What does this fold into?
Amino acid sequence: MKVLVTGSAGHLGEALVRTLQDLQHEVIGIDIRASPFTSEVCSILDRPCLRGCISGVDAVFHTATLHKPHVVTHSRRDFIDTNVIGTLNLLEEAITAGVRSFIFTSTTSVFGDALVPPPGASSAWVTEDVTAVPKNIYGVTKAAAEDLCQLFHRNHGLACIVLRTSRFFPEVDDNRVVRETYADDNLKANEYLFRRVDIEDVVSAHVLAANRAPAIGFCRYIISATTPFLPVDLRDLRADGPLVVRRRVPDYEAEYQRRGWKMFPSIERVYVNNRARNDLGWPPRFDFSYVIGRRKADDDPRSRLARIIGSKGYHAEAFAEGPYPVG
It folds into this structure.
């Protein structure tokens, strides 16, 4: 199969190119930056370049984007150009080229303010049925791009799958208070309970989505590690996070004590991946219990792919407040 990967110099783009090449697919990687995984230095705003790259392609994996850490360093127009107009360009060229599957990498950030329950309420159980309420230009443009994918499926029959990925970046948190409160490994382990996923699982979801897209047509999926929590836990989870974690993963506490780690006192939302596991046949391997097991053995809990790719960052420059110009 011949495939196109946008954002091939990025974290997920490189992971996809590596994996798809290992699966013996013919891969064309495009990015505005040269890299060992970029076949063509090309902007998704450059229609002639896109047209040449997409010719004869069976599947498009669209990962190129401006991210949340770019909100301070880039204008709102930059976000619209890259995340909305760039996606529109790809969708139009995909129709012309007869592409079979279009996989759009979105984000759980589109849920925005829907992720924060009001005071006194239970934690949020976040499925694809929760209405997105984006709270910044990043979320707004990703939600708009999702809607474009749905439009092109409805009006042109293009098989489009939207994957709303939770956190898989290896960089430290963009919130200074959080960085100062939790060791980075501790923070990431906590997040596997409700809002993190390993990049190897993200890639496998993309590959499965490309294969299943023609049969599915259009759908949105949350791609996050499988949570140990259940809906009946939500009220307690908001009031006393460690209590519920002890209930569902009782062996975690000894390992946290050994390492001097802390559990979040409250967990306000939980991403639920049931639809992706059921519809795509997706078997995510990396969850909180897996991380605890690896830590008990003093092993690195990251996948081989995560270790190979490492950290890429979002900006070339350094900032006084840490790795990001926010938080």
Notes: The chain has one domain: 2-303. The chain is about 40% helix and 15% strand. Residues 2-303 form a domain with the Rossmann fold fold (CATH 3.40.50.720).
